[in-house]
Amino acid sequence: xxxxxxxxxxxxxxxxxxxxIIFALILPLFLLFIFQQFDIPxxxxxxxxxxxxxxVFGFSFLTLFTATLVSKDRESAxxxxxxxxxxxxxxxxxxxxxxxxxxxxxxxxxxxxxxxLLGLDFSxxxxxxxxxxxxxxxxxxxxxxxxxxxxxxxASSGVGSIAVQLVAFTxxxxxxxxxxxxxxxxxxxxxxxxxxxxxxxxxxxxxxxxLLIPALTVLIYTAAILTAAVMLxxxxxxx
Amino acid sequence: xxxxxxxxxxxRYGEKKAVDGLDLTVEKGEIFSLLGTNGAGKTTxxxxxxxxxxxxxxxxxIFGLDTEKDRQKIRQLINISPQETAIAQNLTVRENLEFMAxxxxxxxxxxxxxELTEKFGLSPVLEQKGKTLSGGWQRKLSIAIALINExxxxxxxxxxxxxxxxxxxxxxxxxxxxxxxxTVILTTHYMEEAEKLSDRVAVMSSGKLRAMGTPQEIxxxxxxxxxxxxxxxxxxxxxx
Lengths: 239, 240
Prior knowledge:
The complex is a heterodimer of chains A (about 240) and B (about 240). Chain A has helices at about 1-15, 20-35, 45-75, 75-85, 90-120, 125-150, 155-170, 180-190, 195-205, 210-239. Chain A has about 240 residues and is mainly alpha-helical. Chain A has one domain (about 1-240). Chain B has a single domain (about 5-235), classed as 3-Layer(aba) Sandwich (Rossmann fold). With about 240 residues, chain B is an alpha/beta fold.
């Protein structure tokens, strides 16, 4: 109940900040439209592959503004006040997660509506992809909480921007990572972002082949990041 | 049972002792001021007593409960209005009150909010966002929020800092009205404020308690003519 109360406040804070909406909703939508205006060769740019990529790219902005919100809260006296309330560390983290999840849902609705307008065939895969993307978004929101717990308000937007770039370049959104080889391909394998894109592409195509490893990777990363976020946030509140 | 009892309360950051062996007793219903220059250890003391940070050594009890072991129980009994104005800037005054009522799980929030709105005269700004309020309104709201759970012990960390004289006097009357009902721990740099409002004061410097008593006792103890001079003398070890 306390987590829900905190989520309500966070949601209002997010919705009253137009920059969050521009970055998380409008920018990825713009990219989806622009890239479909050119006949760019490559599998990644086909609408059925690019749309899941854009969803994950949109999620990276959730990391950015969750990090900003958390770090801003941490530096404000508001959290000192809440620190003496009966709220626990898990209430805060759950409160941030629940506040940002509706944004992930909005992104799905908007991006798939746009993709349908651009020519994507309607299928049950769209619903499956949207449903799977919500738990995946927890990885990105959790990462934002972790970043926001580690660094101050000024640094959080910088670190958040690095996360956006990492997702864009290692997620396989624009090109297949295996094309690059060497260190870059290894980095893509180590990080969970290409896995998230693979899972959503598989869901849209209703094809689960080869998704076990990406699913396990994403699951382990999400669990580890959320656990670290709760621990670090609680520690920061007490320091 | 006292509202606050500390014995040898100490907080160390590395080699530096922010609070050094503080022995303090505050009785129920008192308005008690913690005075000291910047870095004297007042805010650290408030943070330890309000369970925000842990202690390094010593003992601290709030209504007989240990600040480390019984943290969750203590949090039901206390509240704080921190040094900076602690309100959600993008929420309206009403939403701020609703939010904090939710954080404390208040059973009938609407009634409590109505009561606080009336007590603090918040009606004219009830639908205004926090960031659009003047400093005086923000402070009033901050203290109103701190009373949302009907605390038995309230920490007010420099509540009138930066306020104009009228807003300050308004807040004084709010604090005065709490006397006897709520135990108030006040930190302030304004000696006039401490002298007027406090039943007793404690003077701290370099993390240590230098003197404690009623404002009149403090004046007598220092051998000075007025409270401000008495404070300066005690806080500087008689240097001024």
